[in-house]
Description:
Blueprint: H1 6-15, H2 19-32, H3 37-44, H4 48-61
Amino acid sequence: MEKLQTTDSRCLARRENNAQKRIRLLALAHFSEGHNRSEISNILKVSRTSINKWVSDFLERGLVGLEHKTSLVDLPP
Length: 77
């Protein structure tokens, strides 16, 4: 597991061009500051389910876990 400091995740978020990944990095910054998942959900205006998934994915796979995963919805018909 990668250890990510609050300042690291905020710096990465500022440099990130992908808006979805930027939100995920900000969620991690708030999490590392001690905010609970419900608070982060309210701050970032995203579902608590998404916050849970992002934090779990990061804890399991590090920054790679925050990458967008192709779903059936994303695939062309």
